[in-house]
Write a structure and sequence with these properties.
This protein is mostly beta strands. 9% of the residues lie in helices and 40% in strands. A hairpin with a 6-residue loop joins β16 and β17.
Length: 271
């Protein structure tokens, strides 16, 4: 069954209820059409079977675990803002065929045993603010997280995780983080999780940088924290290696000049 939802610039989003997916249908030349289906892998909730559009042109939908919304261009790119109980709603889902768009721009829908009446803010799908994020803690090799301020060094060879904190509760589901480790990584890696796997770092000093944003809003200012990874136990370091190399060369030259007698030397780098 196809249920018309929204049409703009000769596009139409429909709900394909038999397979709990939605599809974007666009007419082409020669009486042809293109069809693109969207499902859970495209950012929709499982069992997405409710769909409608409001007066702003925003596309609304829902399933058993959350409601979702986006403007048509962002929805076409498979990006949806999810809303559930963490946003103050009495239930997570949205019942099939229950969405009603009121004249004042608010929406009504049924969810479980509740009736939801919601007036979305004007910037709901286009946030103009950036959230505050901070590097809260580190953990490694499955250990419990420890406050970042108490961590000066990381053990060599450990697989570390950085834990990001934020007091951003409005549209919490849409909070995204991107991060990088300098100097190794110049490009950013984006994550929907606040637990960032930074892996096993080489010995020496590194800098973790992170930013946050809500949905498609602007990225926040960069927060950073230096990290020092200890050298392996018993590893003398590059300075001592170079010093020993110079000493060995000097000793070889001295032995050659004395006809094979080994001179007494002082070990600059005791084991």
């Amino acid at each position: 069954m196809l249920v018309p939802c929204a049409s703009a610039q000769r596009r139409r989003l429909v709900r394909v209820s038999s397979v709990t997916r939605i599809a974007l249908i666009r007419p082409l030349a020669g009486d042809r059409i293109s069809v693109r289906q969207y499902g859970p892998k495209d950012g929709l909730t499982e069992g997405a079977d409710a769909l409608d559009a409001d007066h702003r042109g925003w596309v609304w939908g829902g399933g058993v675990s959350a409601a979702f919304v986006a403007d048509p261009a962002v929805a076409e790119a498979a990006k949806w803002l999810q809303l559930d109980r963490s946003d103050g709603f009495p239930a997570n889902g949205m019942n099939t065929g229950s969405v009603f768009v009121d004249d004042d721009g608010s929406l009504w829908w049924g969810a479980d045993n509740d009736l939801v009446h919601y007036t979305p803010p004007a910037d709901l799908v286009t946030p103009q603010f950036s959230p505050q994020v901070f590097i809260s803690a580190f953990s490694w090799d499955g250990s419990s997280p420890r406050m970042a301020e108490t961590i000066a060094t990381l053990p060599h060879g450990s697989k570390a995780v950085a834990h990001i904190g934020s007091l951003q509760f409005d549209r919490r589901n849409a909070l995204r983080v991107r991060y990088r480790i300098l100097p190794e990584q110049s490009s950013w890696r984006e994550s929907s999780s606040l637990d960032l796997p930074i892996g096993s770092l080489s010995s020496g000093t590194h800098t973790l940088e992170a930013q946050g944003r809500v949905f498609t809003g602007p990225w926040s200012a960069t927060v950073s924290r230096p990290l020092t990874v200890l050298r392996p136990l018993g590893f003398p370091g590059p300075f001592c290696f170079s010093t020993r190399l110079r000493a060995a060369r000097s000793e070889a030259a001295a032995i050659s000049s004395t006809g094979g007698a080994r001179p007494r030397t002082r070990n600059c780098c005791p084991a």
